[in-house]
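Can't paste images in this forum, so I'm doing it all in text. The chain is below; anyone willing to post the predicted structure tokens underneath?
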Amino acid sequence: GHCNRRPGGHRSGRRAQRPPNTRIMTDDVPADEPSSTLFIDAAAAGDLDAVRRLCGTAELRLRDESGWSALTWASAEGHTPVVEFLIQQGAIDAEVEQAGCVSDVAEDANLPSLVGQSLVTTRAATSPLHWACWKGHLRVVWMLLLNNMSPLELDSEKNTPLHLAAAGGHLEIVKTLLSVCVTVNGVEKPVPVKARNAFGNTAAQVTKHAGCKSLLSKAVEAAADDRRFLCSSSGLFVGSRESCAVTVVDRVSAPSQRPVRYSTECASKIRAAEAALEAATAAMDKPEALQSALDAANASGASVHLIDAGTAALLRLEAQLALEEQVITVNRLRPLESRSPLKPLSSCLKLCRERESLPSLIEQGEQVLRSVDAELALQECTHASSSLRLTDAHVTDGDEGDELILPSHTFAVVADAGIASLEGLIAAARAAGALDEVLRAGDSALSMLMAESELRHALDEPRLEEAEAEAAGGETSWLHPDGQKSTSPLERLELQCGALAAALEKSEVLGTAETVLEAARAKQASLQELLKQEVAAEETRVAKAAAAAAKKAKKK
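Text version of the structure:
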């Protein structure tokens, strides 16, 4: 058995050749119109931009010398975007207008019945649906069927689209054709599996594909019991009253609408699976429950949109749970010694952002990152601050014993800069919610550095302000490191001793190196001796002044 040559006289090759049929042109568009050839050639080549540019109402009804329309060429070549555009412009209506019609195809007859209101007619040129079925362009077939191109239409050799799909060995297209129908006066007309072409062959007789032959044989047997529709879910044949036609979305490689048929039982199971999936998606609390609902929905053939939504929800939920786990893990490990444990947390955060997880959870993860980053920076600075502490190396031999390096030295400048940096990091860490133990360590290091800095400054000599002294008419003044001013040697020494005593007390409490403290105490003793001498001198000056005043008063 065979369906004679390939439809429309097609020969094998990369592109369908124009068949040697009678030339058919529209009455109102000349055959030699240049845009006519360009439009059909653009459709055949899949040039959507050119098709858009050249398309018009008249062009949709154009035929080339072989009787092929732009829609036929695009369908035969599998140019889905072009087919979609032409359908949107009304190309199928133009095909039907130019075709004539029949309402039914007899199951056993060699020729179609011509009873009742017509749908399609036998064509001189093979229809777009015939070509798409023959070439195996599944999505084009779906598109044409969903836009009312009849699966009952016959080509010039009385082949139905089912003949050509079977002859081409395209099982999925055969399944689709066995699931659809044409409704005439409220009656569903299925694709006739026993219809014979001009050579007396049924679809089962023209196929060499084992899967197609087996399915078509079952279809013939089921038709005897009036079970003429293939359930797209169960794969069983069912009657018209025990089934329903539905349009669903398929996503084998790209989302596309496709016509299907479900038995009442399968439709009920699908609705139940969809309801369960919607509930699990809304709850989104247990990944196992959501995964189970997704598996059931996939197995039943539920709505792809619901499955996509459920899948997205599952991915979100998994990302959220992973992020929650990482937050717990990082918090348990804090304070960290490096950023390495943060890598999984950062990856989970990135995934949660991509999957649009709960903003509050993302903020929680980001807060942990900020806190740990601040802790690590503070810990590093705290550790480095030990190099800014005063040690034996900062004690030098002076003329009057051991002396400390003064603040003008490079070390003192670096140490003061370190104090400023540590203060800033402590403030940032506290604002970021760093651990108390990290803050305490930073505060302790800062207190030590500040105490030793105060000690260094207390050991420095006040600066004599000569310019101010000249402006004040010769009165001498000194500016101390803590900003205070003194105007007499006694006041100067008192301020020096007071500042040094306070700085020494802090340093002793905080544990400054003993050699440093000894050098500072030696300086303190020296200052105290000078202060003692200055006090005695001041007392002598006061006594002399009092005696002079008394003598002057006695003379009066």
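The radius of gyration is 48 Å. Confidence is low (pLDDT under 50) at residues 8-33, 108-124.
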